[in-house]
């Protein structure tokens, strides 16, 4: 196996391993959970967050390397759009979902834990969870578009 093909394999595997677990977010953040169920979901989510951090970074770096040593160019529509979608996903998850998620996390593990409440979260926290869930659904759809672009590689 030559170096380029090995890099393609690394890139594809890093993308699958890095992005794949993020598709569990809407399931972990589903509505109707009790406080205890949400705590478990948030703990699992914290573990799953490691995959996009490592795998996603490796996918981006290996993708850039593939462009540099391969026949593709950064001005190719599918590469440009893929990078734009990746940045948009990061902005949505880090800039919009994470701050809301942190508020719910703090409530779950501080206030609710102190009162030993097992009921559903109060309305304002349910609203935050709903916003986070919606953001993750959008990020999931964008992730699918990202995979489609990398598979189809459309040109203009």
Automatic annotation (TrEMBL):
<feature type="transmembrane region" description="Helical">
    <location>
        <begin position="50"/>
        <end position="71"/>
    </location>
</feature>
<feature type="transmembrane region" description="Helical">
    <location>
        <begin position="134"/>
        <end position="152"/>
    </location>
</feature>
<feature type="transmembrane region" description="Helical">
    <location>
        <begin position="6"/>
        <end position="29"/>
    </location>
</feature>
<protein>
    <submittedName>
        <fullName>Putative integral membrane protein DUF2269</fullName>
    </submittedName>
</protein>
<dbReference type="InterPro" id="IPR018729">
    <property type="entry name" value="DUF2269_transmembrane"/>
</dbReference>
<keyword id="KW-0812">Transmembrane</keyword>
<keyword id="KW-0472">Membrane</keyword>
<dbReference type="Pfam" id="PF10027">
    <property type="entry name" value="DUF2269"/>
</dbReference>
<keyword id="KW-1133">Transmembrane helix</keyword>
<feature type="transmembrane region" description="Helical">
    <location>
        <begin position="77"/>
        <end position="98"/>
    </location>
</feature>
């Amino acid at each position: 196996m030559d170096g380029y093909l090995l890099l393609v394999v690394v890139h594809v595997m890093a993308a699958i391993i890095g992005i794949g677990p993020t598709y569990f977010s809407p399931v972990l953040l589903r509505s109707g959970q009790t406080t205890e169920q949400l705590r478990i979901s948030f703990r699992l989510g914290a573990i799953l967050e490691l995959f996009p951090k490592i795998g996603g970074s490796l996918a981006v770096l290996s993708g850039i390397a593939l462009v540099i040593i391969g026949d593709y160019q950064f001005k190719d529509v599918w590469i440009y759009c893929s990078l734009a979608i990746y940045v948009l996903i990061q902005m949505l998850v880090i800039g919009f979902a994470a701050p809301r998620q942190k508020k719910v996390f703090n409530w779950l593990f501080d206030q609710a834990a102190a009162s030993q409440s097992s009921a559903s979260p109060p309305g304002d926290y349910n609203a935050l969870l709903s916003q986070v869930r919606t953001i993750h659904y959008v990020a999931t759809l964008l992730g699918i578009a990202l995979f489609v672009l990398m598979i189809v590689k459309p040109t203009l």
